[in-house]
Amino acid sequence: MRVARAAEGALTEKSYVAPVDVLLRLGWLQPARVDEWRQGRLPALERGVQANLSKVSTAMGLLRRWAEEQGLHPSETDYVARTRDRRRLQFSVSGAPAIEAAYRTHWVSPQLSESKRRRLAEANSKPPDLVVINALKDWSCTECSGTGDLMFLEGPGPLCLTCADLDHLVFLSRGDAALTRRAKKASALSAVVVRFSRSRGRYERQGLLVEEPALERAEAECLADEEARRRRRVRDEERRAAQDENHSHALAAAILESFPGCPPERARAIAEHAAARGSGRVGRSAAGRALEPEAVRLAVAASVRHLDTRYDALLMAGTDRAEARALVREDVDGVLDNWRAMPVSPGGP
């Protein structure tokens, strides 16, 4: 069942399932349309769904039944627009209370404690940051026809910071986490500044717009406890290094347990690569940290694909990624099957 697979994927990744997650994973809803909706540029989320409402209604019913069968806990969550008025977002075209409540309901893993479920609900209900875009192309404000480096998307089109009532804020570049955190906390109004990276195909954070008095206060606080924060950073780095080493050892052991024919030094190399902090690889995922068998298999398969097949050569020759994977799948499976077999001992037959 596609709905169940989509829900399982979201649950594994985030420990909860939201109807929006399922629609995205089914391919009925595109991330760009969700962004438009959150920016107040789409009156109802269903206006952006690429499926008829009958199919959506059926999927919502299937999601609810699946969640109840899995013993997931329902948690109704507020969805607030990323607009200056912070209005409540509408999901359905009809706006019917029962349908809206169904869309707002998140289904949370029973493995989370009550306190974790409460913190998760609070985090999900928190109003999203306002987002200002550092524009790459020419544009004009829909209210005054002006322009500038920064624009704010809301309603029918982009606004300059003056028309968005954000022009009194000052820019704080990214890079100093403590300063950013304190300035944001002290500022009654703030906005995240992002810029689209063509090479990576995504928006990347550039900094923060905050009130000038808030920034001055944050700078004074950071100067006052700079040495204490430096010592804390050293302790945190040592603690994280120890955690990473322990996880890498545990992942290597899990690899050898599932693939006893894998050379031990290769298992260690796979574990170190898959579990590298900040890499975004499978070893850093929730499933990878839990040493789930499928996550272990994916880490090993990725290493085999790159090092033991012609996969990288195919990519360099211009072969599509999906096609290249299909071409080497048999070779990858062959190595994995060999490694699943128990190694023959030196004194054995």
**What is the overall pLDDT average?**
91
Count of β-strands: 9
- How much of the residues is beta strand, in percent? 5-15%
What's the order of the H and E elements?
HEHHHEHEHEEEEHEEHHHHHHH
Helical amount? 40-55%
Rg, Å, rounded: 25 Å
State the distance separating the first and last CA atoms: 47 Å
Provide the structure class: alpha+beta
The description of the largest β-sheet is: 6 strands, mixed
Which key features would you list for this structure?
349 residues, 3 domains, three-stranded antiparallel beta sheet
Explain the overall architecture.
The chain is of the alpha+beta class and 349 residues long. The protein folds into three domains: 2-125, no CATH class; 130-224, no CATH class; 231-340, no CATH class. It is built from 14 helices and nine strands. The strands form two sheets. Strands 6-5-4-8-9-7 form a six-stranded mixed β-sheet. It has a three-stranded antiparallel β-sheet with strand order 1-3-2. The model has no long low-confidence stretch (mean pLDDT 91).
